[in-house]
Amino acid sequence: AFDANAVPQAPEDPLFGLMAAFRRDPDPKKVDLGIGAYRDDNAKPWILPVVKLAEDRLRNDPDLNHEYLPIAGLPEFTAASQKLVLGGDSPAIKEKRVTSLQTISGTGAVHLGALFLAKFYKTKTERLAYFSAPTWANHFQIFANVGLAYKTYPYFDKQTKGLDFDGTFAAIRDAPEGSIIVLHACAHNPTGVDPTQEQWKKIAALIREKKHFPFFDTAYQGFASGDLATDGWAIRYFIEQGFELCIAQSYAKNFGLYGERAGCFHFVTSPASDAEVTIKRVASQLAILQRSEISNPPAYGARIASTVLNDPELFKEWEANLKTMSGRIKEMRTELRKKLEDMGTPGTWNHITEQIGMFSFTGLSEKQVLKIREDSHVYMTNNGRISMAGLNTHNVDYFAKAVDKVIR
Ligand code: PMP
Questions:
Q1: CA 298 vs CA 57, 72, 208, 327: distances in Å
Q2: Is the CB of 219 under 6 A from ligand 1?
Q3: CA 229 → CA 234, 286, 301, 315, 358, distances in Å?
Q4: Which UniProt keywords apply (predicted)?
Q5: pLDDT digits over 347-401, tens only?
Q6: C-alpha 217 to ligand 1 mean position (Å)
Q7: Global pTM value
Q8: For residue 105, which atom of ligand 1 is closest to its CA?
Q9: CB–CB of 129/179 below 8 Å?
């Protein structure tokens, strides 16, 4: 018989544990820099104005009902998602070399991709996936759960608080041929450090040479720089180079649809005379995996995103909303750096403005993170990552002083 009592206690998810600790803290000055969710200048969740407009339209649409979506999701949504991530004039779309399934946000897309690779991706020697060190912690458990072995490639340089390009390059070069290389398309989580376009080109050439398989995780398109094409550049460059690859796309951050779980998985095959046949086969297998796991994806979030993506007016409004979010975060980076530099806080602070996206890797040690939590009621993950969106004009000064105090 199954002895459920023998199931070992698993550790609490560190990030969600941190959120709970923040909620329990009665101190009015407390600052939440833990979870990666956008907050407005009053530390409140922000419903994008364009999302409200889309919701109004959906509410008044007499043709909507609660029927199941197709297994691959809402067709208008997946088609618009392809265009968004690959570019409207992408040769891959024209040549019908892409297949896309709506997923349970970005997490579900990473999972579906990993599951597909676990089942169908064959290599001559050891089959390994490579994640940046550090990476979004969930990558490890998602790949482990589907039985894909992984290693890491160096990514963050503790000295410069920037990219360890030589380390990245050497590890990808030395990985067994045909390794799965997981890449953050932009706004790397947790470091906020991205390769430059020149570095991306070198990485792409190396991946090609080693016959590796690129797996892009894109959770921040438009949210990072405020510009959809800029944040989509790396993926579009790889596509231009004719790579076969897959993409996990999330709408949690750039639409503020966190809890609605809107996302998309794309598989793109290389240009070839039989590419269309290949992609149909891939699509047929993905459909079976999707059916066995979720049957069909949830409708609400995808309908909102689809309404916006397919309407030129709403799309423009969305781009403006993206500028609001990314702009506020950039202002906070500038403010924080300035305050630390003005106080003469020991260390260098240029990385705060050079890093991009939701997060900054401050360089604070775990000891300092725990001390700042205890002394100043500032909550950040133990690796020293702060969610920039948790800072605002009311608390950035308090936070800078808390950092200064814990460092001196
Ligand atoms: N990948 C990365 C790198 C992320 O940062 C996130 C969001 N934290 C995700 C994927 C997916 O998040 P979600 O499932 O909420 O879309």
A1: 18, 11, 36, 31
A2: yes
A3: 10, 28, 23, 14, 18
A4: Aminotransferase, Pyridoxal phosphate, Transferase
A5: 999 999 999 999 999 999 999 999 999 999 999 999 999 999 999 999 999 999 9
A6: 8
A7: 0.97
A8: 16
A9: yes
